[in-house]
Design brief:
The chain has a single domain, classed as NAD(P)-binding Rossmann-like Domain (Rossmann fold, 3-Layer(aba) Sandwich), CATH 3.40.50.720. The protein is α/β, with parallel strands linked by helices and about 180 residues long. The protein has helices spanning about 15-25, 35-45, 55-60, 70-75, 100-110, 125-130, 145-155, 165-170, 170-180; strands at about 5-10, 30, 50, 60-65, 90-95, 115-125, 135-140, 155-160. Strands 3-2-1-4-5-6-7-8 form an 8-stranded mixed beta sheet, with helices on both faces. The N and C termini lie far apart (about 30 Å).
Length: about 180
Amino acid sequence: MEINRVAVIGLGRMGSAIASRILHSGFEVIAYDRCAAKVASAVSAGARPAAIPADAAQEADVVIVTMPDELACVDVLLDHGGVGETLRSGGYIIDASSTATEFGVATAERLARFGIIHVQVCLVGEPVHARLGELKVLAGCDDGDLAAVRPVLDAIAGHVVYVGRDGFLADESMAGASVLAMT
């Protein structure tokens, strides 16, 4: 699958840094946030605006989600007007949200019913690292799915660690070891 368009949903400090880096790496970016000023800032940098998460996902090859909590994540992924309504079957969500392990697993299962592939990532670093393409990323998914989204992850990360299909979601000690090995 060739990746041309990346939707970035959640334009807080990290999300906006990711959107900036993705844009500067040659991808088209579709931006959504509940705050119109954050979307306007992304648009001034070259992104296309989306009115709701479903609009952002409709034309995207990959959707990156950076939500601060589970409630916000459900809202943008699964509720009416969410990504799950319009992201094509076989589409990818890179989920870098701040959520509990069990929530990530349940979300992946719900999205799989729509044929949507959920790649859970843990970002290690600050927004400045994202802007420079120097984040460290732990990715939990099938290895084929990691290969598919790798061009996007490589744009924001200096180092990507594959932690398996269940990865750090299922084995917290593996994630800890990976983080220690990366620092």
